[in-house]
Amino acid sequence: MSNDLLPIGRFARLCRLSVKQLRHYDDLGLLVPAWIDPASGYRYYRPAQARDALLVGLLRAMDVPLPSVARVLSGDGGALREARDRIEADVDRRRRALRILDRVVAEGLPETEVSVVREPARRVFAERGPATPTTIAEATSACVARLLPRMSPDGLMVGLFPLDMADEFDVRVTVQAADGDDVLPGGAFAAAVHTGPYEEISLTVHGVLAWFGDYGHTPAGPVREVYLNDPATTPPEHLETRVMIAVEDPQ
Description:
Number of domains: 2
CATH topology of the largest domain: Multidrug-efflux Transporter 1 Regulator Bmrr, Chain A
Number of strands: 11
């Protein structure tokens, strides 16, 4: 054993990590000890490993995933940029959540004006994509991008989202087309128009669901979002989206 090796306890204090964390990172192959005593199994580290250990601790404190940390240690410069982009996206989501929370604090759950309408079945082209509760916008945008070449000037674009949000689910987006290869079912729907940014549509969705509770109806998914104007030419505060939820037992 070299004299410059540090026992795991001293190395842990130097790097502001716990012994348990160091053992875990060793098990993952992330921070491998310089030497392990074959008799006792005790781990020893070189002082030069402290820089990597400190970097691991810093990145983990910022919730950078372990696979990304491993890529950083291997010299993959793009991993840090990806980690930064993920944190920035998370900050953006939290800012949007704060704006919604501010509205709820000021106004409570919206008193949404709801009407029951009947919709015909429509032929459509449809795209589907996997999503999680935090990646709905990205998944929807990807579906929209694939559908835009098939959209006519007067065609309706509709987003379809499950009523029950699981950890993972599919979102669907459709565009109306006479030669569409899919059908968007018709029926009776509770409908309300949301005015404002897309990220605040959940306020109107919850307002429509509150209407179901108030009047004793049963909602049937998925939630439909009918996009009434072009986000490329319309300011976010003026965007209009018709929120529709099928009424299972219309009166």
